[in-house]
Automatic annotation (TrEMBL):
Keywords: Antiport, Cell membrane, Ion transport, Membrane, Transmembrane, Transmembrane helix, Transport. InterPro entries: MATE_fam (IPR002528), MATE_MdtK (IPR050222), MdtK-like (IPR048279). The chain crosses the membrane at residues 12-34, 54-78, 99-118, 130-151, 163-182, 188-210, 244-263, 269-291, 311-331, 351-375, 387-408, 414-435. It is a multi-pass membrane protein. Its main location: membrane. This is Multidrug-efflux transporter.
């Protein structure tokens, strides 16, 4: 076997092994929301389900800045691991937890303002009445969620992601159990309380595991006395733009829901089916992106430009292969996939089947753009990619979608073609950014602050 092929084979194998537990953990988070919706809808009915959906969307949208912002920590940890700098890993672990508290409290205040001004969202009186207390409890639950994510960055950055996978899947079962009893006892508030308790379990379980498992002892036993302020500032300064990358995409898709809602109820229902399918494959792609970020960060720590290039390329190859399979599935089995959601509404099924075809085409763009963001985080390049995502979604995707849907009369299909255009622009620009940027970083004196611009 040619030496170059052998190197890429090793990189692909290592990235795949690292990706699988992260993908499963990501799916666990998605399934937790699905479980909540299924139980609320079946036990309480449509109006509580609508209230929970609005509250969940708003809380997650605001919290996404923190979720995306903390993801940079795993890249820093992997860089320190590449340099065998145990003290730096120790400081990053503690600084990440501190930042999680700050973000949890700061974003929590934003959520409280949203609850206080909930009437501006134009919901019915009953939905507003139910959603307010639900959103308050969800806001509180974002704090343990961010703490879990902060500690998870240590595990993922050290290529030890199975910890978070098992804890997330355990929390999924706990959440379902708690929901069943608490919804019957307390109504919609019980579902939010179940989520809060499940997230507290996640934060406590991962903290105890890291504290007691022998694998982590070399990194945590000798606590550095050096101030954490420099790392806290670095995580916030580089992580917050990364969080806004996540925010811009989620906000764009949330606004697309509103635009499609103007077209009518059948279009909105069809959109929900197609976006649910696309979101599932997207979350799996984010696992490959996280693995790519960690592997690139480790290569940076080892000061090897060829290793940086191979790690990034391996992530691109993996996500391309995975998304091509998803694309073929969406194109060839679109009607069957839609039938899993709805059987007795031919209009919705017809629209949804068409949208799933478009979703099949944007699988590849969606996967490549999220992996590009991941490998760029691995070299701590976040400011320009954040601007590129803003342009792709808010200057390309949404305006094109609106024009195609309304003036040109393409209906819901027009909105989805706009999303496809934005995702494709994002994929091309971000991939180009990585391959023109990585070889210009000075690995001899690597410092994330040097490559922000």
């Amino acid at each position: 076997m040619h030496p170059v092929i052998r190197l890429y084979k090793n990189d692909l194998s290592m990235t795949l092994r690292l990706s699988i537990p992260i993908v499963i953990a990501q799916l666990g988070v998605v399934l937790m929301g699905v479980t909540d919706n299924l139980m609320i809808g079946r036990i309480l009915g449509a109006i509580p389900l609508g209230a929970a959906g609005v509250a969940n969307s708003l809380t997650f949208l605001i919290g996404s800045i923190g979720i995306g912002g903390l993801s940079i920590v795993s890249a820093f940890v992997s860089q320190a691991k590449g340099k065998n700098d145990y003290e730096e890993i120790n400081r990053l672990y503690r600084a990440g937890i501190r930042v999680a508290w700050y973000l949890g409290l700061g974003l929590g205040l934003v959520c409280l303002v949203a609850v206080w001004q909930f009437d501006v969202f134009g919901q019915t009186a009953e939905v507003t009445r139910l959603a307010k207390p639900f959103m308050l409890i969800l806001t509180l639950s974002n704090i343990p969620l961010l703490l879990f994510i902060a500690i998870r960055q240590l595990c993922d950055g050290l290529s030890h992601p199975k910890v978070a996978m098992f804890i997330t899947m355990s929390a999924l079962l706990l959440n379902a159990f708690l929901n069943y009893f608490l919804i019957h006892a307390m109504g919609l508030t019980g579902a939010a309380l179940g989520t809060l308790l499940a997230r507290c379990f996640m934060a406590l379980a991962i903290w105890m595991y890291v504290r007691n498992d022998s694998f982590f002892h070399p990194y945590l036993t000798r606590i550095s006395q050096v101030s954490l302020n420099d790392l806290i500032v670095k995580i916030l300064r580089i992580g917050i733009p990364g969080g806004f990358q996540f925010f811009f995409e989620i906000a764009a898709f949330s606004l697309a829901v509103i635009v499609i809602g103007w077209l009518g109820e059948p279009q909105l229902a069809a959109h929900q089916i197609a976006i649910n399918l696309a979101s599932t494959t997207y979350m799996m792609a984010t696992g490959i992106a996280a693995a790519g970020s960690i592997r690139v960060g480790m290569a940076v720590g080892k000061r090897s430009l060829p290793a940086v290039q191979r790690a990034g390329t391996a992530a691109f190859l993996l996500v391309t292969a995975f998304m091509v399979v998803c694309c073929i599935l969406f194109l060839g089995a679109n009607e069957w996939l839609v039938s899993l959601y709805i059987r007795d509404n031919a209009e919705v099924a017809t629209i949804a089947s068409t949208l799933v075809i478009v979703a099949g085409f944007f699988q590849l763009s969606d996967g490549i753009q999220v992996v590009a963001l991941g490998v760029l985080r691995g070299i701590a390049d976040v400011n320009v990619p954040t601007f590129l995502t803003l342009i792709s979604y808010w200057v390309v995707a949404l305006p094109i979608g609106y024009v195609l849907a309304f003036p040109l009369g393409m209906d819901a299909m027009g909105v989805w073609v706009g999303l496809l255009a934005g995702l494709t622009v994002s994929a091309v620009l971000l991939t180009y950014r990585f391959y023109t940027k990585y070889h210009r970083i000075r690995l001899e004196e690597i410092d994330p602050e040097q490559i922000l611009h």
